[in-house]
Amino acid sequence: MLSRHARSIAKLAIAEPRVLGLLALAWTLIGMGGARAGEAYLVKDLNPYGRFVSISWPAAADGKVFLAADDGVRGSELWVADGEPPAARLVRDLREGPEGSAPQGLAEAAGAIYFSADDGTRGRELWRSDGTAEGTRLAAEIRPGPEGSSPGDFAALRGTLFFSADDGIHGRELWALAGSPPSPRLILDLREGPLGSEPRGLIEHGGAIFFSADDGQGGRELWRTDGTPEGTFLVKDLQPGPEGSDPKELAGFQGRLYFSAGDGQSDRELWRTDGTPEGTFLVRDLRPGLAGSSPGDFAVFGGALFFSADDGRSGRELWRTDGGPEGTALFMDLFPGPEGASPVSLTAAAGKLFFRARDEAHGLELWTSDGTLAGTHLVSDLSFGAGGSEPASLAPLGEVLFFAALDRVLGLEPWRSDGTAEGTRRLEAGAGVPTLSSNPRSFIDYRDSLVFAVFDGLWRSDGTPSGTELLRDLSFGGGAGGFTGFVVEVDGFLLASASTPQTGYELWRSDGTPAGTALIEDIFPGSKGSNPSEPMAMGKILFFKADDGAVGPELWRSDGTPEGTAMVKDILPGPGGSNAAFLTEMGGRLFFAAAGPEGGQELWQSDGSEAGTALLADIFPGPEGSAPSFLTVVNGALYFSAGDGIHGQELWRSDGTASGTALVKDISPGPGGSGLSSLTAGGDFLFFSAAGETGGQELWKSDGTPAGTVLVKDVYPGPESSFPAFLTAVGGTIFFAAFDGFSGVELWRSDGTAGGTRLVRDLNPGPSDSFPEALSAVNGRLYFSASDGEAGAELWRSDGTEAGTALVEDLLPGPPGSRPASMMEIGGLLYFAAEDELHGRELWALPLGAGGRRGDANQDGRLDIADPITIINHLFRGRPIFPESCAGDADGDGEIALADALYLLRHLFQGGSAPAPCG
Q1: Would you say 690 and 674 are in contact if contact means Cβ atoms under 8 Å apart?
Q2: Do 125 and 138 meet the contact criterion of CB atoms below 8 Å apart?
Q3: Are strands 363-369 and 376-380 parallel, antiparallel or unpaired?
Q4: pTM of the model
Q5: Can you spell out the DSSP letters for 134-180?
Q6: DSSP secondary structure string, 790-819?
Q7: Would you give the distance in Å from CA 728 to the centre of its chain?
Q8: Strand pairing of 428-429 and 87-92?
Q9: What would the pLDDT profile of 853-891 be if each residue is shown by its tens digit?
């Protein structure tokens, strides 16, 4: 291909030098990045702040949370989060440039924060800060010169800071900073010589500092000090000899110090001490034998000491102890099986116990507990799916927990949480932090404009910067509010779930203007909010779930006025609420899952009145309930997943009557169920993912009869699963992501037959995955996010054929890509959320154009210099021109070649003939 184009250029240089000059101009414009008509463009940078590369939150003092963070420009430096709502700001750039001073070991003492840092001249030494630039200064230079003493393991006792450091003479030993003015002093040289005793794990307990150290004779053991040489001594030699018991994870509880150690007879287990040899003993051997349970991450909460441990049966899980062997037991098996949930970073804050743990569905996420089994749950799935947000650096401050977490869209961000999903939010960054995202979401077409939600409120856009405006600022300059729930059109206006610091999440109304955007009703008065969710518009009424603080989450309705906003029915009397979910309209009635007084979660119906809201079918009588989910309407019938206690979760169908509600088919006989998911309407059929009696999770369809409920195709033959996901109907075709065992997770299509179910294109050739996501039907085509292995997750388009499936634009070259999502077409523009290296995740638009005009290669509805550039990009860089259109074939010879770019250049600049109409 390249040689053919090269020959064309060579001939052109001889025959038509003037046109060659135009071609050179076009090539220059490509190199300059000009002529972007028809390509995706950033609509507006709604949040021009920034994103952190690394975050650590280890200390709080004087109402502030101090952190070491890297904003991608200055390197890791000292930051502070303060104010209301709190915002992160740089305290002082101790080491100018991208390397940073890398603060470590932050600890509070006497109202200030102490930490180690390297300013580039003194090496790593001891610093202190009060949260201001002028109050951040060197506290002590223990080892003059560029090497530094590398202080660490900080702990405070009666205003004195204790830490380990290496002065270059004694090795790493125990030091203290005391006096006025404060000065450093070596407490005791436990191990003479340059090696040092390496004190670790310093903790204040009972008027003393406890730590582990190795004096060179008895191995690493538990020591204590009152800050004097004579008051520094070994507590007990648990494992005599040079190996030592290696005490770790020291934590105080009810006048005793708890820790993990190994005495040579049992491996690392739970110990406690009162600071005396006779008061130091093993609490309980949780895992008898050589392996040991390795207890750790201790946290005092609710009159007990919680910790993580592995007993060899349940994996690493959450345990608790009252200090005695009988009171030391497994608290909760969060992830059943030998792998375990691995709870770590246990932290008490806001009257709750926070920790990070993993389960099969959510990956590593933030969890909380009130000390009961029922009150132990996932706070929020910040990174949807099994990947997890990997929360870290948990730090309590007042009634809030601060932490860092990964979001699949935003990357690493600072967060705050009160223990509820609604109260878990990103922390706003202060001015001067580059490239923070606004994360546009909840797109809706309203009066031919895009209305969407970002971090600070509700916005509207016509696709231009000047036409993109904030309808209502809910953050009041602090970033605490925002439309992060739903936005739904009802009877010509918008109803949305939104939050302010005063009201929490409540129901709002907007007519698309700033003046016409206001709170409808404070259903749960105060800052907690009623948290409206599960919206379903029926005619002029919006149904939703909300909690008024008295009866728990129940079914509500609103016509957009305060007097027309009310609870439909208190389905489950009491503070627990019925937790109405999966609200779905069929035939003018509302169907949903709810827990009533008869038992667990079952199928209910409503006509919008209290009297007309009733249980439709008690599929599994008793307290467990059938848990109806994924309610989907196809051809006037309601399909859903439910379990009757005999068949497991299987496919059910209802015509809206109790007698017409029945099991469609027991796809996987037995109590396990078929694992139904991704229920999607496609023509006259319901498509879904399920595991049959012999095969794995595959693509199925149903016409509502047992005989018509069949496996479409075993994409990954045998017992393995292809895990069809993101099922999306485009016309009569179902697109989905699946794994066939050979091509990785790729884009597939199906017409409902085995022969018509096939791989669209192996976007990332070979066994690697392209991970198609955010599948969206737009103007008869499929737009989606995927990675071809060279570009990261970028915007793709497909007409269902291999040739017609191509990358639209590489907005952020390299991994992980721009990760486009939330796609919606309005007025010839495809709006979507994506990110580039300059602006973070913001609102983008792609002109779609008519797509049928010959020569309009970029399909933006006009002929200009961008069209020959698009053809050249297609020929030399593999950029797409879609074959169902004649757009790229400017000269009408039936193929797209360099001659088409030249034809357009002659037309545009030399008065040549215009391209003929298509067809």
Answers
A1: yes
A2: yes
A3: antiparallel
A4: 0.56
A5: TT-EEEE-SSTTTTB---EEEEEETTEEEEEEE-SSS-EEEEEEETT
A6: SS-SEEEEESSSSTTEEEEE-SS-STT---
A7: 23
A8: parallel
A9: 688 777 655 677 878 888 887 777 666 665 545 778 888
